[in-house]
Model the fold of this input.
Amino acid sequence: MAKLTAFPTAAREYFADLQAEMKRVTWPTWKQVRATTTVVIASIFAFAAYFGLVDMAVGKFIEKVFATLAK
Done:
């Protein structure tokens, strides 16, 4: 029963602390958000191309191995 009566006080303290922390957050500028988003998207495409090429090369190699062993 004590936990039930302490809940409103704990919730109030939690939200007060949350509000205080959110005021301390340093938010990035719109320019920073655009720049980092561009880097992330470019990195995704670069990694996709790299892994696509590696997958293709490994696939060709495995096909050659199977073709050689199937003779």
